[in-house]
């Protein structure tokens, strides 16, 4: 039996009968993580790592798509502990390796170029002037307190092997910064998909994947419209959340 801390609960991830420990005191997973977990390219086996893993939701989702060993790196002790217990809760302790650590230095422990794929759902917002969110866990999840965008992309480049893939979800407004930094660190952008809340609205998020030392060429995939005309999740998202083992093709 996996222990729960005060204020924690067990939620249903719906797909693949996965469960996840969450708490109202820390930042819960969101649509961003779910989309990243389906968008990224994965090897059938090998080594995969998820940075800014939080409570480990992305590694849990990735475990349904590959037989690879999966690492998760989270700097906050509270969330890293939840990630460890989430792996155990789903009987995945032999494949999911959750580590408390700083993505800026984790390559010193795990090695350069040791991973076939890297995923990351980083904090989106610059650190604001003046008072920040009083909840340190929410603040760190939303704001670039422990790492900025360049730190994240640099870390990905150090961890992934030549020809390996790096996938990220971020705000669409940061796309130029993302592409420039990816190229700076020899991660050639190869696939991109915009995410819109509703048809006719500008993109709110972007999913982007690059290849270490890849040749220049990028594919722009059809946009994902989250809500249909009835203000319900679109068919693709319903397949993710309610379709069990139904495959969602993003490529």
TrEMBL record:
It comes from the Bacteria. This is tRNA1(Val) A37 N6-methylase TrmN6. It holds the Pfam family MTS. Residues 34-138 form the Methyltransferase small domain. It comes from Paenibacillus aceris.
């Amino acid at each position: 039996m996996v222990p729960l801390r005060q204020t924690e609960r067990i939620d249903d991830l719906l797909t693949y009968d996965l469960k996840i420990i969450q708490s109202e005191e820390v930042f819960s997973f969101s649509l961003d993580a779910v989309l990243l977990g389906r968008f990224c390219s994965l090897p059938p086996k090998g080594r995969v790592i998820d940075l800014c893993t939080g409570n480990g939701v992305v590694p849990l989702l990735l475990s349904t798509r590959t037989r690879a060993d999966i690492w998760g790196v989270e700097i906050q002790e509270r969330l890293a502990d939840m990630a460890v217990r989430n792996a155990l809760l789903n009987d995945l302790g032999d494949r999911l390796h959750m580590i408390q650590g700083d993505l800026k230095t984790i390559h010193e422990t795990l090695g350069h170029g040791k991973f076939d794929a890297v995923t990351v759902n980083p904090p989106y917002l610059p650190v604001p002037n003046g008072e920040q969110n009083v909840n340190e866990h929410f603040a760190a999840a939303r704001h670039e307190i422990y790492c900025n965008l360049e730190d994240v992309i640099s870390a990905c480049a150090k961890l992934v092997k030549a020809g390996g893939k790096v996938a990220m979800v971020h705000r669409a407004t940061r796309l130029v910064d993302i592409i420039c930094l990816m190229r700076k660190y020899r991660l050639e952008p190869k696939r991109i998909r915009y995410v819109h809340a509703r048809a006719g609205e500008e993109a709110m998020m972007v999913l982007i994947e690059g290849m270490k030392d890849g040749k220049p060429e990028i594919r722009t995939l059809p946009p994902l419209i989250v809500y249909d005309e009835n203000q319900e999740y679109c068919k693709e998202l319903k397949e993710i959340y309610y379709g069990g083992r139904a495959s969602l093709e993003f490529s």
